Amino acid sequence: IFFSHTMLPSLSPPLAAGAPSYRTAPGAPPRPARPLVQHATPWVVACGCVALLAGVFGPARGQHMLWSAPAWAPAFTAPRAEVPPKVFAKHSSNSRRGTASAASHAGEAYGGTRTTQTFAGVPTPNAAAAAEVPGPAARLAWAVCAAVAAAACIAVGRLTAHLPAVRAAPAPAAAARPTMAMLATTGVAQPANTSQGPVHVSAAFDAGNIVVEGSSEREVNLRIRGDPYTKGTDEATHCQWFYFRASNVKGIPMTYNIVNAGEASYPTAWAGYTTCASYDHETWFRVASTHYSEETGALSWSLASEHDTVWFAYFAPYSYERHQELISRCVASPLAQLTVLGSTLDGRPLDMLTIGTGPLQVWVCARQHPGESMAEWLVEGLLEGLLDGDTSDKEILRKATFHVVPNMNPDGSVRGYLRTNACGANLNREWASTGTYEAPTLQRSPEVYHVLKALDTLGCDLYVDVHGDEEIPANFFADSAGIPGWTPRLEELNHKFSAAMLEASADFQTELGYGQDDPGAANMSICSNQIAQRFDCLAVTLEQPFKDACNNPEPAHGWSPTRAKAFGVSLLEAIHKVLPVLR
């Protein structure tokens, strides 16, 4: 053992710097990563040394050894003088219980016959047999065998000590396999590109609209889901509104393709359009890479998202939850009163807020077309101006009573439609019967039915129908010229209202617009035409852009919720200016 601990280390070369090592337990110091035989080397050498010592000195004490001369060497044994009992007793004093057994085994090992005699009153083996011990030749044989064994053990130890440190080679890593993602709506698998997880696209939320067509590693093909078919008036399936989110896309330069953009209701409107995007649903920016291909009919854009999730939309959405919050904020004011005019086809309340006590009845209604979300953003700004304004705004409430319907089409808004309600009716074509088509009805257009009923009850002196236009990059009025009751007075009111808006807002303009209908050619199923004719009043359609306002551009954000709300305050200023001339 002394040899193994003092000599063996010098036989083994030290481990090279950085050589691998194993730990026996967490926190334990490392030990060299050597083969199993090298771990056993000290014990092999120790056993060899013990064998050598036993071979040399063991025969002199043969009567105490548990091993004996081999059977092939009986001739080497010689009789030994009888050991007096007193001497035997001394040698066996270390184990009183094993005296007889040890003496018996010693006698049998040397080939003597087992007889008994009495020693101190205890039977013992035959003294003659016990006295047999190895002779010089036996001692020499044992010494040679032990020396050979020890030499062999030391040689093995030296050889294994010089073997290089080895460890089991790690199993070769399997080839990387792409993680597959089940993309929302269609279940199309897409390889993931980062460790964050597979890219996921979803429109399963309020106002969401998109269908996943397919994908490749960094590209997703999408399709806009159409509105219900509009019978009787438009005879078309409208589509253009989209709104979805993409998750697990941080830092990935993804490309999004709306492959059926060429089949939209207004395909020419894609020229000059840039997609709206947001990371927090509060701040919306425009994706400058947006482009439309007339050849393929696809609208595409690319973006390496700064966050794990990004939302994309045709315009910044105005959620039904935000609508509820707007109503709750307004009714908390003592100036506002909420009236539920009726229920929609999906059972949602049709809310109308009444503010003011003046004799003039001013109506502002928004979002007949649910995809035109900028309309409700404008109304939010107008309501905040009415309820939180300064002294001049309080004066307007003494001159007029405002009836505000923030969202005339909540069903279509939640369903993610562009122009229709739950059953496919285009509400801005439901204000009068045309030919054999009866409108409005509770079965098809209850929203228009209830608002028109309230109008007939309360009267109207000014009506503003708030919309959004897909093609024209500007804010403008569409007047009611072309109705049977169009008069110079109504034309003068329209001119004064436009002038007031130009003065109130740099975002308004009069160069771009729809133009005027020929006399008597107005479509009387359109809201502003019907109201102007019905009440002989100033009634306009206020259009806002889905793009940017070309006369006052902001490319980073385009026309946005913030600008729409500010435009609502400007509208309130213009209304205040024309109140004295309405009647």
TrEMBL record:
Family annotation (Pfam families): Pepdidase_M14_N, Peptidase_M14
Family: Belongs to the peptidase M14 family.
Organism annotation: Eutreptiella gymnastica
GO molecular function: metallocarboxypeptidase activity; zinc ion binding
Protein name, UniProt field: Peptidase M14 domain-containing protein
Cofactor: Zn(2+)
Domain of life: Eukaryota
Biased composition regions of type Polar residues, renumbered to the chain: 91-102
